[in-house]
Design a protein that fits this description.
GMP Synthetase, Chain A, domain 3, globular, binds magnesium ion, single chain, binds guanosine-5'-triphosphate, about 280 residues, alpha/beta, Rossmann fold, seven-stranded mixed β-sheet
């Protein structure tokens, strides 16, 4: 018998959704930061085994919408809830499970399980969960993985939509753009991160060199200077880390150029959202 199905990974921002997807898949599918609302898109991580293929749907953190980008993000969450064979609701083990969250969980359709995350950390809160995990040190992941596979729809024939060595639905372009965004989020002050987007304008794979040109979009003129930094220092750090990542991913030398542009209120512009792939 073969198992195939979809699993929606839902939860508040920072609950550890993307970290879990990466840990289960064993590859960096989605970027991870300690900033809220890091994930914007639904990102598929594919778990491959001899008799199973499980598609994990990483989603943006559940939050109230303030602009068109937020609305799109919440639409992504709803689609991940409705079209899947199992829902994992992730709750940060270091935070109390409040009433609002319990109510949200109660309203999610079945089948679903509550997963307590980050149990390697100190100061864990006391609440009941079906699974307790740490994506950092791997605690509980094997049990969770076996449970997931067991719950997936079964069939007599092997009919998997992804190739065995595919681990995501996203393009190399997208993955590199996200890596740049992650490094920018990690290095920048609190006021800027939400307003950042990255667009890849050129992605040319030659025999010994891949040329990548990216645009890092900010919302305010004054943010531009901050992103670039004194003498270009900040942008250099962002670019260097992203280049090293891209070189490893592509197995090729990479020339990465990042330009910084201002696009005021892009989070409310349908055109810009489309351009940045949201
Ligand atoms: N110690 C520890 N930290 C974790 C663990 N899982 C995630 N984190 C940290 O928690 C923060 C948020 O992790 P993410 O995986 O980006 O969380 P997310 O739910 O995808 O967040 P959004 O995309 O913003 O909704 C990061 O700083 C992670 O390093 C864990 O098992 N242990
Ligand atoms: Mg995430």
């Amino acid at each position: 018998m073969y198992s195939f199905g979809y699993v929606g990974i839902i939860g508040k921002t920072n609950a550890g959704k993307s970290s879990l997807v990466n840990a289960l898949v064993g590859q960096k599918v989605a970027i991870v930061t300690n900033r809220p609302q890091t994930t914007r898109d639904n990102i598929l991580g594919v778990l491959n085994g001899e008799n199973y293929q499980v598609v994990l749907v990483d989603t943006p953190g559940v939050h109230r919408s303030k602009n068109k980008l937020d609305k799109k993000m919440m639409k992504n969450v709803r689609s991940a809830i409705s079209g899947v064979d199992l829902i994992l609701y992730l709750a940060d083990g270091t935070k109390p499970l409040d009433e609002e969250e319990e109510e949200y969980y109660a309203h999610l359709p079945q089948p679903k399980v509550l997963v307590k995350t980050k149990i390697d950390k100190k100061g864990l809160k006391n609440f009941d969960a079906d699974f307790e995990i740490s994506s950092l040190n791997g605690t509980g992941l094997e049990d969770l993985k076996n449970y997931i596979i067991d719950k997936m729809p079964k069939s007599e024939t092997k009919n998997f939509p992804f190739e065995e060595d595919d681990y995501t639905d996203k393009s190399l372009r997208f993955i590199v753009a996200e890596e740049i965004r992650q490094n920018a989020l990690n290095i920048l002050e609190d006021e800027i991160p939400h307003g950042i987007a990255v667009e890849i304008e050129r992605f040319e794979e030659k025999e010994n060199l891949t040329i990548i040109e990216a645009v890092l979009v900010v919302e305010e003129e004054r943010h531009k200077g901050i992103v670039i930094g004194k003498g270009g220092k900040t942008l250099k750090i962002i670019g260097q880390k992203a280049r090293e990542f891209a070189e490893e991913l592509l197995g090729n030398k990479v020339l990465l150029k990042i330009f910084v542009k201002v696009d005021k209120d892009w989070r409310n512009s349908d055109n810009s959202l489309k351009k940045f792939g949201y």
